[in-house]
Specification:
The protein has one domain. The radius of gyration is 13 Å and the shape is flat. The termini are far apart. It is 56% helix and 0% strand. It contains two helices and no strands.
Length: 39
């Protein structure tokens, strides 16, 4: 069993890792840009 804080840390690390498929942007950056461009 994993603590929620451990799972949150893992999710944060994964979302801050640059991805080749995203043009070396992070998933968090891509989400931020998408939310910012939505009226």
């Amino acid at each position: 069993c994993y603590l929620q804080s451990d799972l949150d840390e893992i999710a944060l690390r994964l979302n801050q890792r640059p991805r080749k498929t995203l043009g070396f942007q992070t998933p968090a950056d891509r989400l931020q840009a998408s939310v910012a461009s939505t009226p």
